[in-house]
Amino acid sequence: MTSTQSHSIVTASLRALLALTLVATLLAAPARADDPPPADSTTTDAPAADVAPAPVTDAAVTTDAPAGLTSTVSVGPNSRLTAVRKVRLTERSHNVMRSGPGDAYSIVGLFAKGTEFVVVTKSGDWFGVRLSTTETGWIHSSLCKEFDDLSDLEWRPNPKLYSRTGSFVLNGYAGAYAFDRKSNSLVLGGRLGYYIFDRLQFEGGVSWTHISRPAEIVESLFDLSLEAEKFHMLFYNLNFTLELLPGRQMVPFVTGGVGSNIMQGDTETAYNMGAGTMLFLSKRTAMRWEVRDYRFKSGAENARVSNDNVEFSLGTFYLF
Predict the structure, then answer these.
(1) Structural domain of residue 129, as residue ranges?
(2) At 116, which CATH number?
(3) What is the dihedral of CA 14, 17, 22, 26, to 10 degrees?
(4) Handedness of CA 146, 149, 153, 155 (dihedral sign)
(5) Rounded to an integer, what distance in angstroms lies between the CA atom of residue 2 and that of residue 14?
(6) Does pTM surpass 0.85?
(7) pLDDT digits 0-9 by tens, 20-49
């Protein structure tokens, strides 16, 4: 065998081997998704390809409720499921809706049988319902049917929250009184107040002090004399007190009013202003300290002088 013949045999063998390798590769490759199935193949149920899941949108999902009624559930992409409690009017053709949980409250409207409302609160036998985005009303439970159990909506007042409006206040105090900045004496007094609002108080008070002024030069008709003064002074006033931070344990306030001073047989009109702090020890009791300036005129008609009388006091505060 010549070299030319040997070379031809090797070349033919390599071509045959390459052809076999190509055939084996084609047989082992998976079928493509877009290749049509064979005509005689049997189709089976399979999930559809390239089907995107439906997006979650805000919607109302209906849940089962008694007596064929439905209750909606609010669904949002970023919120948890929250039940919307509702009632339906079932008794009369025209049902009265009131402004509060009781028959004494004013009527806010008449609604026909079958009308549905979203419940926002509950007080006893009354449901507080939403009439619109800005209005609410109250309906008695005998006039409507609950979609769900609404016992968890029962309104209960917070025992830590209370109002002082309409309450009376009794205040007794003692302190120091400076008459015209020249005489220091003891002062005793008391006040009775009334809360018009939680932060505004109207009060009337009466106080007593004994003035002891040092000797001063007093001019008479013919000569000069050195005289000292000692006398009792009774003064009363009507004031308004405004609490700056109501509802706290320590409450600062400002106060002011008008009144009269009775001394040496004369009555002088006065006005006062001051500030202080109340420290509540309980809901009904507190300590109260303040500084107050009483301003009035005194003296003979041709020699009237203005007096600034500063009072420092510490007292008790009882609310009832």
Answers:
(1) 84-149
(2) 2.30.30.40
(3) 180
(4) positive
(5) 19
(6) no
(7) 666 655 555 554 444 444 444 444 444 444
